[in-house]
Amino acid sequence: MRRDGSSCHRFDTSRSRPRIADVPELPEVEALTLDLRGRLEGRAITTIHLAAFSALKTYDPPLSALDGTLVDGVTRHGKFLDIEASGLHLCLHLARAGWIRWRDEVPALPPKPSNKSPMAARIVLDDGTGLDVTEAGTKKSLAMYVVRDPADVPGIARLGPDPLADEFTIEVLRGILEAEGRKQLKGVLRYQSTIAGIGNAYSDELLHAARMSPFKPANSLDDAEVETLYAAIRGVLGDAVERSRGLAASQLKGEKKSNLAVHGRTGQACGVCGDVVREVSFADSSLQYCPTCQTGGKPLADRRMSKLLK
Locate the Formamidopyrimidine-DNA glycosylase catalytic domain: which residues (predicted)? Predict the structure, then answer.
């Protein structure tokens, strides 16, 4: 119970987890979609309080157009959440540090805009429950769109195929890899216009499952390797979705972290071969891999660490 008398079930109860393991990707967004669908369908949106004005990326229709609308469904497009209400769509991209928290009872007073607060918006429902859309940290990237068609959101319009859709076949993957030429597999898998929903964590995980270097050129895979990569994509993501299915949203990030094989586990033993998990650092992110499983025992060059050691 909070001081204002309301109760708040936080979807994320830990602030100590590494940020790189907290980025919502396809499996978490899919689980959020299922959770919100059960909570929101058939409910009316009373109003939406905007606390971070920079989060709203559209102006027509206005945010107030959702007041009094009935929620018809909740779906996912890649990493985007889509709440459809009376013909309008509230699309959310949670970016690196965004999340959604369910409230059994919303406070009487709306949230105050503040650069120091993680609050981005509050969705108030007709029965007094609601959702807090939050974003931790100082780098604000969370985005909200009110549109008549999800395709009006540039990020959704540019999405590549969903890797868990029936239409995503081995032939589709082979065509993507050939078209990307000498680009590194890690980057190809993460690029949302190529394949939707895979981020930093799960690209590490499925490359480990496929026993492939993150720096391997996309068009260098033979037929057997394409089949192996395809099986890893469907298997790693599909298993993560199944593990998350039915879980309370407050458990999703913990479930993700506890099942990662290499991502966020630098210096730990690989669960497959026992070798030490290594890391390559970039300006604003990093990747993890197992040398024995993925690179023939050879460590990959970490340019940032090399500069520090000179």
Answer: 24-115
Give the residue with greater pLDDT, 64 vs 96.
64
Helix (H) or strand (E) holding 188: helix 185-190
What is the rounded average pLDDT of the residues 230-252?
A: 83
Coil, helix or strand at residue 91: strand
Which of 295, 108, 133, 129 has its CA nearest to residue 210? 295
| Helix (H) or strand (E) segment spanning residue 173 | helix 170-180
pLDDT value at 249 more than 80: no
Q: Which amino acid is at 232?
A: A
Query: Can you tell me whether residue 238 is helix, strand or coil?
Result: helix
* Run of H or E residues at 135: strand 130-135
pLDDT of residue 304: 53
Triad 160, 164, 166: Cα angle to 5°: 90
Provide the token pair at 203.
Answer: 């690209």
